[in-house]
Write a structure and sequence with these properties.
Blueprint lengths: L7 E4 L2 E4 L17 E4 L1 E4 L10 E10 L5 E6 L5 H12 L2 E3 L1 E2 L5 E2 L1 E10 L12 H5 L4 E10 L5 E9 L5 H9 L10 E10 L5
């Protein structure tokens, strides 16, 4: 087994280095750069500390020959929760792969800019499920992909990843009841829901 000198976080097929380089990655031997065909933004429940953040995060992503981002390296040090949310959104993105001069798809690093501004969106916090409490489960996480119409209403919401099925219904209910700012076209968002049971007084 190959070991790496830095800590890594594994999510599905992704391997995200915790600390990325501060320089951009050159596109060498590439005749056609990758093209982003499905962009996914991070979104946050109303009780998240990230709700009022307004910034743009630049990330270098490794786009494979099938058009999926298989790794990501951040140029700047970020809050762990913000980094987690951005990594989740990157995992849902789709690209046309880069191609060499012969037209063959090639794997390359590619920089993308992700806006983080969720102040105009309304996403109700999920309710901690009573059933989870009855089983003695006090925390969990669910990642939901949300397709939003141009009027800001949610068209569909799908669970992509879950620590426990008992949390999924509550996360989906929150996502389906969310309202987003209007736009000229439909959009995709990813919401990372963190469940934590409130301690009894």
């Amino acid at each position: 087994m190959i070991t790496m000198p830095i800590a890594i976080l594994v999510i599905g097929q992704f391997i995200f280095p915790i600390d990325g380089p501060t320089r951009p990655y050159p596109l060498t031997g590439v005749d056609k750069k990758p093209k982003l065909v499905k962009f996914v933004e991070p979104a946050f429940p109303n009780d998240s500390k990230l709700k009022t953040i307004n910034t743009v995060v630049v990330v270098n992503v490794l786009v494979d020959t099938t058009g999926h981002a298989i790794a990501a390296r951040f140029r700047d040090t970020l809050d762990p929760e913000l980094k987690e949310a951005i990594m989740a959104s990157i995992k849902g993105m789709e690209f046309e792969p880069a191609r060499d001069s012969a037209g063959n798809p090639v794997e390359v690093w590619f920089p993308i800019s992700i806006p983080v501004s969720d102040m105009d969106n309304w996403i109700p916090p999920p309710v901690f499920p009573e059933k989870a409490d009855s089983y003695g489960i006090d925390s969990g996480k669910v990642i939901v992909d949300v397709h939003v119409g141009s009027d800001g209403s949610v068209i569909e919401a799908k669970v992509r990843e879950s620590s426990n099925i008992l949390f999924e219904s509550s996360a989906l209910s929150s996502a389906m009841n969310a309202r987003f700012s209007s736009s000229a076209a439909t959009r995709w968002f990813t919401i990372v829901y963190h469940f934590k049971k409130e301690k009894d007084e």
